[in-house]
Amino acid sequence: MEACEEYLSETYGITVYQEQVMLLSQKLADFTKGEADVLRKAMGKKQKYVLDKMKPKFIQQASAKGHPEEKLEKIWKDWEAFAAYAFNKSHSTCYAWIAYQTAYCKAHYPAEYMAAVLSNNMNDIKQVTFFMEECKRMGLDVLGPDVNESYYKFAVNKDGAVRFGMGAIKGVGKGAVDAIVEERKENGPYNSVFDMAKRIDLRAANKKAFENLALAGGFDSLGSSHRAQYFHNDGDGITFLEKVIKYGSKFQENQNSAQVSLFGDASEVSIPEPIVPPCEEWGTMEKLRREKDVVGIYISRSPS
Question: Are both 139 and 78 inside the same structural domain?
Answer without folding.
Answer: no
